[in-house]
Fold this protein.
Amino acid sequence: MKRPTQIDVARLAGVSRATVSYVVNGLTEGPISITEETRQRVLHAINELGYQPDAMAQSLRSGTTNTIGLLIPDMHNPHYWQIASGVEQEAQSEGYDLLLISTSLDPDRELHSVRSLSRRRIDGLILVLTYENQVNDEIEQLVQRRKPLVMMNAGIGNVDGIDVVATSFQKGATQLMEYLLSLGHRCIGLIYGVAHDQMGWDRLTAYQAALQKASLPTEDNLIEYCGTTLEEGYQAAGRLLDRSPRVTALVVINDLLAIGALRAIAERGLRVPEDISIASFDDIALASYVNPPLTTVRMDAEELGRTSARLVFSRLVNPKLAPQNVHITGQLVIRSSTGPAPNH
């Protein structure tokens, strides 16, 4: 069926097309005087025909789209979905829609996606980048267009037009290592599953510094590098667990990989935490529901999303704001996946 137009609505309501346009766009003042009876007649015709205003035409008239964009690195990691949920909650409360793009940790796809978003008619943009250095030109173009832009975990100082939400696990990772050492663990493995070496650096350096402070070796065979999927976390844990002497505790770069590691532990007949402790980072929703619930360093992903969206909307209200920088640190959450080292 042909999509109904304003002309169709006007014909059914017995009014001019201009009158329909005034009603659709909520205008109350102008050259056309519209009575309440006429407005109701137009609304009834709209409902009867199922007429929907053309969003693109409306945005061209108003100069806004009531849409913000969000780019995330990995649609398989619940941490990023929680960020998206927080952005969406804040957007909905402001009457905005969300355009979501995932790059699957692919550098070419990330570059293409940023370029695509920079060309779209959206009112603001939130970027969670993996390969930040390759999109410098695109970021500069976005700044020149004065489109509100929030970057998460970006290595950017005070740049006009760019607001930053920075996260750090450094303090929480240090607290986690101190906690494991206090439980008597002296052979602590690390599963380091990241898209590239710079990611997760705050957790790696905290791990190494804690071992050095405790006069324990930071041997390469205690660190297992892998990819970012559940399967890769499972495989990496298996390789660590099969080495001798076996680790008494596993620190995993994020909760998703830790869930894969739990399977590897169970398949070897080991008990958590009696035989081996395991802890991770993020505190995704699943972390408190696996058996046993995971000790983790919590980064409130939904709040990250809400905070990022608030920065977009505050800049939409006042484009001349000074660069906004918000710093959020992870907090240690102790659950039953960690316990005293065996024979301690």
User: Anything to note?
Assistant: The chain is about 40% helix and 15% strand. The longest strand covers residues 162-168. Confidence is low (pLDDT under 50) at residues 58-63. Residues 36 and 145 are 42 Å apart (CA to CA).
